[in-house]
Design a protein that fits this description.
The protein has about 170 residues and is an alpha/beta fold. It has a single domain, classed as 3-Layer(aba) Sandwich (Rossmann fold). The protein is built from 5 helices and 6 strands; from the N terminus they run βαβββααβαβα. A 6-stranded mixed β-sheet has the order 2-3-1-4-5-6, sandwiched between helices. The structure holds guanosine-5'-triphosphate and magnesium ion.
Length: about 170
């Protein structure tokens, strides 16, 4: 049969934004785990997302002390999933700083990498809309890369497939 195209995806964003929960939900149900703990360093997850594509996801820790690990994987990344906790208004500016640092990195800056943003935790009462998240992060300034933002509730799995469908369209 046809060989699946393997795509290296970097999953980035602040600690507690829901990266591991999202990646876990994207896996086939028999490969999902129940208990998700804060990621130490990073973890590599492989799963197929369609008949033609398989994702190798670098699920990075978002904790401050591990964020310096992210850049070591930029070169091999072919797509980025950037996760934001939509209810964490206090740290939205920190998320923006990390995003800007990412976008200005020499291994990212001049590449046309697709970036999928999840405005996650939309189920929480004080979550702000994905439109508001995209304004606070100034996403309209990203002109040299295709990007897309989806509101998501990773606990229920809502909004995730829309995002992954978009990402797959960018790659295939
Ligand atoms: P690090 O590995 O430390 O960088 O964090 P992470 O981004 O991987 O976050 P993780 O997936 O560990 O989730 C952090 C917490 O948020 C967990 O308690 C999750 O259950 C919770 N969580 C994740 N997504 C959602 C969501 O959409 N809604 C709500 N209410 N909680 C969520
Ligand atoms: Mg994690």
């Amino acid at each position: 049969g046809l060989k699946k195209k393997e795509v290296h995806v970097l999953c980035l964003g602040l600690d507690n934004s829901g990266k591991t929960t999202i990646i876990n939900k994207l896996k086939p149900s028999n490969a999902q785990t129940q208990d998700i703990v804060p990621t130490i360093g990073f973890s590599i997850e492989k799963f197929k997302t369609s008949r033609y594509l398989s994702f190798t996801v670098f699920d990075m820790s978002g904790q401050g002390r591990y964020r310096n690990l992210w850049e070591h994987y930029y070169k091999e990344g072919q797509a980025i999933i950037f996760v934001i906790d939509s209810s964490d208004k206090l740290r939205m500016v920190v998320a923006k700083e990390e995003l800007d640092t990412l976008l200005n990195h020499p291994d990212i800056k001049h590449r046309r990498l697709p970036i999928l943003f999840f405005a996650n935790k939309m189920d929480l009462r004080d979550a702000i809309s994905s439109v508001k998240v995209s304004q606070l992060l100034s996403l309209e300034n990203i002109k040299d890369k295709p990007w897309h933002i989806c509101a998501s509730d990773a606990l229920k799995g809502e909004g995730l497939q829309d995002g992954v469908d978009w990402l797959q369209d960018q790659i295939t």
